[in-house]
Design goal:
Blueprint (H helix, E strand, L loop, with lengths): L19 E3 L4 E4 L46
Antiparallel strand pairs: 1-2
């Protein structure tokens, strides 16, 4: 299913596992293989994520950017 949004959206991602690092313990960082990784649109008014890390270009979708150099998804 898809949400009913108040404006048009292009390139939305629906029905896919976001591959959170450890959602069962409240860790909603995404791993590099997430469909949300580097799949967002650049916004000039937002430059950093919830952890104050710079977003990549293009940015990941969500509150957290994938950690630079994190090829195995362990957050390091």
């Amino acid at each position: 299913s898809t949400p009913s949004l108040p404006s048009l959206e292009a390139g939305g991602i629906y029905g896919q596992d976001p591959l959170f690092r450890a959602s069962e313990s409240g860790d909603f960082h995404i791993v590099p293989k997430s469909p949300a990784a580097l799949a967002g649109s650049t916004l000039s008014s937002i430059s950093s994520d919830f952890d104050n890390h710079c977003y990549e270009n293009p940015p990941s979708i969500g509150a957290f950017e994938i950690p630079r150099g994190d090829v195995n998804g362990d957050g390091k």
